[in-house]
Design goal:
By secondary structure, the protein is mainly beta. The chain has 2 domains: about 1-15 and about 105-445, Porin, CATH 2.40.160.50; about 30-105, Roll (Ubiquitin-like (UB roll)). Helix content is about 10%, strand content about 55%. It has helices spanning about 1-15, 50, 65-75, 295-300, and strands spanning about 30-40, 60-65, 80-90, 95-105, 110-115, 120-130, 135-145, 150-155, 165-180, 195-205, 220-230, 250-270, 275-290, 310-325, 325-335, 365-380, 385-395, 405-420, 425-435, 440-445. The strands form 2 sheets. A 16-stranded antiparallel beta barrel has the order 5-6-7-8-9-10-11-12-13-14-15-16-17-18-19-20. The chain has a 4-stranded mixed beta sheet with strand order 2-1-4-3, with helices on one face. The two termini are about 40 Å apart.
């Protein structure tokens, strides 16, 4: 009951704060104007045809204020620019030239980052380009050392280059998470064991082939993936190696998964701030392609591993710019899965749930909520300083009906974030908070 009341409070708070549509630039009401031509400025890297694909009109058409505002917001929401503005030039005969300045941000960057808290942390290394070849192609290769260990290669061909607004993503993922004390059964007397969860996945995603910005049409992303999930007692057979004795293997299973992802709403970035609301829903179904170590797994859980699973995840967030320097942010998330394989469960690291150690919420049913007020001390395209006051709550359940065995976490505190809108990947975040006696009290992320 306490859990339901907590979730209800978070949902009520998120509804009570109204979210408005963010406006990127002040656009004067000009009635209607005939656009004889469009000229792009300052986009030293982005190709013109990528920007033309975002316009709600074509040269040679008559447009109004709403057409121009929507077009500029779509260009801004590509996320590749530090500044977007416009100006008019009148031509003889009554026509107009429209100049759109889209100032490229630095989107090619090495990934040298990490986070640390009281007793855990991670170091992230890699390379990312969010505007490969100036065509809005997204590429990312990264390795995270710590808990969890994550390796990923990801390539996305954007909708501006494919048929009917379709986006195509291919990725290879490898993730390992160690849980020093994991209690697989909720009944008294169950043995706590050290556990390592390993997940390898190859996926292809077709994204929103009929999606239109700022208007909703049912158009879920479709994802097909092949994955291998496994769990081990993580004492290796040889010191310093990743080899395991057969007796330490709890199970190994190969899976074929189909996933649907639907997104509603749009978030608009305004330098370092955000405004708008967004709802994300994911539903997945998987089937085992190989025999598993059911007998070994049954010794730990009391039941054999199922050959099929279903999962449902959702998240909602709302951001409102209350005044030029003030922003409110609210987020809630939820995940449920009927699989007994931890490889199919969600877990939250420090950057997702401030102040919580990774693995603490590795459960088949878990959720989290965040509420914060953000104040901007100074803002510039090259450097901003923001302070936030936040409260969060998170929970994990072994089963839907097992609230008595729920794991709960909370944190209340303040944080400072230094970012560079011109270089969106550069930032420093420090948070100080209280999350209960003996728990972490600080969080640092680069």
């Amino acid at each position: 009951m306490n859990l339901l009341r907590s979730l209800g409070f978070i949902c009520l708070f998120s509804i009570s704060v109204a979210s408005g549509s963010g406006q990127l630039v002040q656009i004067e009401d000009f009635g209607t104007r005939w656009v004889s031509g469009v000229i792009f400025e300052k986009n030293w890297r982005t190709r013109d045809h990528i920007l033309l694909a975002e316009l709600e009109f074509s040269p040679g058409e008559e447009i109004g204020r709403a057409d121009l505002e929507k077009s500029l917001r779509k260009i801004w929401n590509l996320g590749n620019f530090a500044e977007v503005s416009y100006r008019w030039d009148t031509l003889p005969g009554g026509g107009h030239l429209l100049y759109i300045a889209a100032r490229d941000a630095i989107t090619l960057s090495p990934i040298i980052s990490g986070w640390t808290s009281r007793s855990s942390g991670a170091l992230k290394l890699g390379l990312e380009d969010r505007n490969l070849l100036g065509r809005n192609i997204r590429f990312e290769g990264r390795l995270q050392l710590g808990e969890p260990v994550i390796g990923a290669l990801k390539l996305t061909i954007p909708r501006q280059l494919l048929y009917r607004n379709m986006a195509l993503t291919a990725a290879i993922l490898d993730e390992r998470l160690r849980i020093p004390e994991w209690k697989p059964r909720s009944d008294e007397g169950a043995t706590t064991i050290p556990l390592e969860i390993r997940s390898r996945e190859v996926l292809v995603r077709v994204g929103n082939p009929y999606h239109k910005d700022f208007s909703y049409r049912f158009s879920p992303d479709f994802q097909l993936s092949y994955a291998q999930s496994s769990s081990f007692k993580f004492e290796p057979a040889k010191t310093g190696t990743r080899d395991y004795d057969p007796a330490s293997i709890l199970f190994v299973a190969d899976w074929l998964e189909v996933r649907f992802i639907e997104q509603l709403g749009t978030l608009t970035r305004r330098l370092h701030q955000e405004e708008g609301s967004q709802l994300l829903i994911e539903a997945a179904a998987g089937v085992s392609l190989s025999e598993t170590y059911d007998q070994s797994w049954a010794l730990v859980t009391g039941e054999p591993l199922s050959s099929r699973y279903f999962s449902l995840s959702g998240s909602a967030e709302s951001h409102s710019i209350l005044a030029p320097q003030w922003q409110s942010s609210l987020r809630i998330g939820f995940h449920a899965c009927n699989s007994r394989s931890p490889g199919h469960w969600n877990h939250y690291d420090g950057s997702q749930v401030t102040g919580l150690l990774p693995g603490k919420l590795t459960f088949p049913v878990n959720g989290n909520g965040y509420a914060g007020i953000h104040y901007t001390w100074f803002s510039h395209p090259w450097l901003t300083l923001e302070q936030n006051l936040f409260a969060l709550y998170a929970f994990g359940l072994q089963e839907f009906s097992s609230q008595a065995s729920a794991t709960r976490h909370y944190a209340v505190g303040t944080g400072f974030e230094i970012t560079s809108p011109m270089y969106p990947k550069a930032g420093l975040r420090v948070s100080l908070f209280y999350s209960g006696r003996g728990n972490p009290w600080y969080f640092f992320e680069l």
